[in-house]
């Protein structure tokens, strides 16, 4: 067996990096990482896989994508073989290599459309759906209620009322989640429907692949036999002219047949540059809804729902009051970051076997918190708090320890701890050079009072709102 390594392991490493970007970390870990490049011989690239199931799955769902990426480095490769690594040569399963493209797919295409509709393998393969992305796990709030309602409506099936449904919004606001939720719901209610979810990038890979294999007729037929088509992140095809062209035709064919189409993008159709005008206007024909940036209430709702989930996973782990509120205030970038922060927090707390407190959160999430710092300054907090309690700024910072000054000072310290990323020693320095233990004591005291004293809780809430305004 000649090891004509026209691809080095570094090159494969680079491809894997790209694949990770495209498929996401979880999919990558499950499906791509186990692939072991063994050889490239003429036009066949061979990977060892631990099980034939994995080979099959990867072939069906990522075959085109891998081939596309491999071709960037080794343009001659036309086919991928997945061989089960164990019992090489003796196990018939190993010989019966699972093949990704040409040798398997023609079987599909010869069957024609009737067969295509009855067997899930012979239809356009949908990209894998994330189990967690269902309507049950989607938290609804003001910023996303319209998008959610529209998605629900589409997921009910029934007559197509708006076509396409165009969902847009910034990164991490739930577009993909909603699309998967629609797909899950439709699959459950109408399993006979051919529901296909793809990223625009995957659409392009398949298109390019079909072009190269001279299977455009099959490509067209297969796509036009889809009942519900979802294309995620359609801004990706901006500037890619032939892909746009084909997308446009597929789109029109499906709309003409009254098939539901759902599209997402990171901005409104009219704002996607390098997208043909006729496509823009087609995309605007249906219902265009946007997902707004999250607000505090929605973030808190999402955190609570995730925390409930974690509570089942880590039954022994306690979370202190106020931590979720703190995170909802401080991390306002996007839901993915918010979720990542909570995941990290639980994992960390369970590793060190500690209760999740505000302090633990600040230590564990320092980088995230810094990145989404709201830029409330210590000075601002001191000024506002002294106004609120009617004391002079100099008394807040000065040495006097009488209660009338000490309590507001502690409130200000507490807010500095909550709303800025300053460390305890730093905060101490800005309060007239006090020791960090004094700050810590003050913060604790206010935490206690907040739970015991309704007036204090209210004061804190008013101040926080004013500061974050
Ligand atoms: P997008 O596709 O808009 O970039 P995603 O749908 O991938 O964003 O969402 C990012 C992460 O945030 C996902 O893990 C998703 O489950 C979660 N998420 C977003 N919005 C919500 C929500 N309203 N409720 C629960 N989880 C959400
Ligand atoms: Mg997405």
Please provide a written account of the structure.
Helix content is 56%, strand content 10%. With 469 residues, it is α/β, with parallel strands linked by helices. It folds into four domains: 2-98, DnaA, N-terminal domain (GMP Synthetase, Chain A, domain 3, 2-Layer Sandwich), CATH 3.30.300.180; 142-290, P-loop containing nucleotide triphosphate hydrolases (Rossmann fold), CATH 3.40.50.300; 296-372, Helicase, Ruva Protein, domain 3; 378-468, Chromosomal Replication Initiator Protein Dnaa, Chain: A. Residues 1-5 and 87-122 have low confidence and may be disordered.
Question: Which keywords apply here?
Answer:
four-stranded mixed beta sheet, Helicase, Ruva Protein, domain 3, binds magnesium ion, 10% strand, 4 domains, alpha/beta, 56% helix, five-stranded parallel beta sheet, Rossmann fold, GMP Synthetase, Chain A, domain 3, disordered N terminus, 469 residues, single chain, binds adenosine-5'-diphosphate
Could you give a short description of this structure?
With 469 residues, the chain is α/β, with parallel strands linked by helices.
Q: What is the total tally of β strands?
A: 9
Task: Summarize the amount of helix as a percent range.
Answer: 55-70%
- Identify low-pLDDT runs: 1-5, 87-122
Radius of gyration: 28 Å
Task: Note the gap between the termini.
Answer: 69 Å
| Count of individual domains | 4
Widest β-sheet, arrangement of strands: 6-7-8-5-9
